[in-house]
Amino acid sequence: NAVAWADPATSRVRFLFPLSATEWSIDxxxxxxxxxxxxxxxxxxxxxxxxxRAARTRAHECLWxxxxxxxxxxxxxxxxxxxxxRVKLAAALVHGxxxxxxxxxxxxxxxxxRRQMLELCKSLREQHGIHTILASHLLPDVEFxxxxxxxxxxxxxxxxxxxxxxxxxxx
Length: 171
What we know:
This protein is α+β, with helices and mostly antiparallel strands. The chain contains seven helices and six strands. The protein has a two-stranded antiparallel sheet. The relative contact order is 0.12.
C-alpha cells in the first residue's frame, strides 16, 4: 500500500502513502508488532523523513489532538471503532500535511463519537490551517465541517461553491 523510491538528493528511501486517513487499513498482525499507538505513529513519522526524536514528539502531539492521550500506550488492535478512526486521523496528520483527504471519517461511529470526529475535522481548518477535503454522503457532516462543497454525480461535477449559496440556489 506504499510506494517507495530512492531520493537521489539525500540517498534516503522515501515512502508515499495514501492521503486519506480512512483508507489506512489496520492489519492486526502488523499492528501487534508495532505494539502501541505511539510506536505506530512514530514509525509513520519516521517513514515521512522525521528524525526519531521529532517523530516521537509528533506522534504524541497527534495522538493528543485526536483525543487518545490516555490510550496512546495501548495496542491499537484493542481500540474501539471510534478510537481506530481517531488513530487513523492522527496517522494522516503525523507528517504535518497542509492538505488531508478524509473519506467518511465518521463511518461506524456512534452519535457522540461522530460529533467528536466532526469537531476534530472542523478544527483542522479553523485552528490548524490544514485544508481538508471531506468525502461524505451525510449532508449534516458536510455542512458542519466545510465552507465549500463539490457535488459529484456519476463521476461528473454537478455543483461547486459555498454551501450557503448552493442551499439558497436549491430553494
